[in-house]
Every structure is written in C-alpha cells, then in structure tokens.
C-alpha cells in the first residue's frame, strides 16, 4: 500500500487505521480488498472527503491519496510529506506538527 498525503490547512484531525486493504478513516471503513490489479476507482466516487484523487491497484499494491490536515506554519515534514509505503496493520502514523510520525 502506498498512501500519498496532500497537506491542507485545517483545524480538524485525521485518524487512520489499516487492516490489510481495509482503511478506517475517522471512523468510516472503506474496504478495497476486491479492487483488482490495474483497476481504478475515480476521484470523487468514494464517499470520503479525506480521500482525494483516484484509488488504484498497481502491481498488486493499493495506491491512494489522503488529505493531511495541519495548522498554521507546518514543519517541512508536514508541508511536504513523503508517501507512506507499506504501513503495518494498525494505526497509520502520520507526520505531525512536531515532525514526529
């Protein structure tokens, strides 16, 4: 799985839990287990404001982009985050205002 992050100035928070190809985003569960290799779910077809852009399966790996909320004057690690590649199951650690993941 590859989760790209799109930083956005917001006051709300983001909590992600991963179990295989099932993501729970702020309490709402999205199951991408049956998305076949090479398939794409177009942007806007998933009822989640946090998922921006298409969701794709590329060479067996799920690829998606999530909004990364941040406050004013974020650290570079938050303003320009690296993709999260193959996070383990459980809580997905995101870059924070303190720079810690």
- SSE ordering: EEEEEEEHEE
**Strand order in the largest sheet:** 5-6-7-1-8
The helix/strand class is mainly beta
Helix content: under 10%
Q: How many domains is the backbone divided into?
A: 1
Number of strands: 9
What is the beta-strand fraction? 35-45%
End-to-end span in angstroms? 17 Å
Shape: globular
Mean pLDDT score: 93
Low-confidence stretches: none
- Helix count? 1
Q: Roughly how many Å is the radius of gyration?
A: 13 Å
Largest sheet: 5 strands, mixed
Quickly describe the structure:
This protein is mainly beta and 101 residues long. The chain has 1 helix and 9 strands. It has one domain (2-91).
Report on the structure:
4% of the residues lie in helices and 40% in strands. The radius of gyration is 13 Å and the shape is globular. The mean pLDDT is 93. Strand 3 (22-25) and strand 4 (28-31) form a beta hairpin. The protein is mostly beta strands and 101 residues long. The chain has one helix at 76-79; strands at 2-9, 16-19, 22-25, 28-31, 40-41, 55-58, 61-70, 84-85, 90-91. The protein is built from one helix and nine strands. The chain has one domain. The strands form two sheets. Strands 5-6-7-1-8 form a five-stranded mixed β-sheet, with no helix packed on it. A four-stranded antiparallel β-sheet has the order 4-3-2-9, with no helix packed on it.
């Amino acid at each position: 799985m590859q989760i790209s992050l799109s930083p956005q100035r917001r006051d709300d928070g983001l909590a992600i839990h991963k179990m295989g190809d099932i993501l729970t985003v702020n309490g709402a569960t999205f199951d991408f287990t049956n998305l076949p290799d090479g398939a794409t779910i177009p942007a806007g077809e998933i009822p989640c404001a946090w998922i921006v852009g298409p969701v794709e399966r590329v060479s067996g790996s799920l690829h998606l982009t999530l909004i990364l909320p941040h406050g004013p004057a974020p650290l570079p690690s938050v303003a320009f985050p690296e993709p999260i590649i193959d996070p383990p199951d459980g809580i997905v650690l995101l870059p924070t205002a303190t720079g810690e993941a």
